[in-house]
Write a structure and sequence with these properties.
The chain is of the alpha/beta class and about 250 residues long. The protein has a single domain, classed as Rossmann fold (3-Layer(aba) Sandwich), CATH 3.40.50. Helix content is about 35%, strand content about 30%. Strands 6-9-10-3-11-12 form a 6-stranded mixed β-sheet, with helices on both faces. A 4-stranded antiparallel β-sheet has the order 2-1-4-5. Strand 11 and strand 12 form a beta hairpin. Helix 5 packs parallel to helix 6. The protein is globular, with a radius of gyration of 18 Å. The mean pLDDT is about 90. The chain binds adenosine-5'-diphosphate and magnesium ion (2 copies). It holds the Pfam family ABC_tran. Keywords: ATP-binding, Nucleotide-binding.
């Protein structure tokens, strides 16, 4: 279970507070969505959870199954079961996708005190997962993300997610947005990886993604706080009326 309590965060370089007391509890096996106007602190929330540089936690806590995430290095957070999708869209010329995935998986296993996966075992697992996710095995042989289309990059991120078997996946659909096809791919991947224990936090500015991923709980973030939470109908309300009504109501 992910438990965020009164999380307050400022920029490291500037005297600017971005998160002003975020409270969020995500139970195992549930899908939560965070929506909200631009600049409300959605991406900052995901960055702080993943341990990105540049942010200073000035109050509150964030734990995964009772373990303090905020004290950990990013690799330790991954080992603890946290996965931030769209965190590795980088192209790595000269490094085969398969090698990259295996290195990531084995680094995580090592941090968990588990034995490395053998090349043969890895190959078997990655082929199975690629098949389940309808990913062409040919993509596994190519250098990481080099010359990948937007859709292929998304598929690859979903494959990374599948291989690392996280407990808690955070997906941030950046403001640049995904096109409809890429969005469907992401949604299919998420739906394929839902299993009753794994949880998802889907961050999105628009309602569109939630047409394809049915969330259990929808939160609205504004000005560094979660100001309203509800069921999937909250996303539809935003789609129809925008944020103005909700924000006026909670002022
Ligand atoms: P959202 O994802 O909801 O659009 P962000 O978390 O990206 O919002 O940003 C929240 C606010 O913090 C915005 O006002 C943004 O300009 C500011 N912000 C976030 N990160 C930085 C940064 N590294 N430098 C300057 N301002 C930042
Ligand atoms: Mg933004
Ligand atoms: Mg954002």
């Amino acid at each position: 279970m992910l438990e965020i309590k009164n999380l307050q965060v400022k920029l490291e370089e500037e005297d600017k507070q971005i998160l002003k007391g975020v409270d969020l509890v995500i139970e195992p096996g549930t899908v939560h969505a965070i929506m909200g106007p631009n600049g409300s602190g959605k991406s900052t929330t995901s960055y702080v959870l993943s341990g990105k540089d540049g942010y200073e936690v000035i109050g509150g806590s964030a734990t995964l199954d009772g373990v303090d995430l905020l004290e950990m290095e990013p690799e330790e957070r991954a080992a603890a079961g946290l996965f931030l999708a769209f965190q590795y869209p980088v192209e790595i010329p000269g490094v085969g996708n398969m090698t990259f995935l295996r290195t990531a998986v084995n680094a995580q296993r090592k941090a968990r005190g588990q034995e490395e996966m053998s090349a043969a075992e890895f190959l078997k697992v990655v082929r199975e997962k690629a098949k389940t996710l309808k990913i062409d095995a040919e993509m596994l042989k190519r250098p990481v993300n080099v010359g990948f289309s937007g859709g292929e990059k998304k598929r690859n991120e979903i494959l990374q997610m599948a291989m690392l078997e996280p407990k808690m996946c955070i997906l941030d659909e950046t403001d640049s947005g995904l096109d409809v096809d890429a969005m469907k791919l992401v949604a299919e991947g998420v739906n394929a990886l839902r299993d009753g224990k794994r949880s998802f936090l889907v961050i999105t500015h628009y309602q569109r993604l939630l047409d394809h991923i049915q969330p259990d709980v929808v939160h609205i973030m504004a000005n560094g706080r979660i100001v309203k939470s509800g069921g999937p109908e909250l996303a539809l309300e935003v789609e129809q009326n925008g944020y103005a009504d909700i924000l006026a109501e909670v002022q």
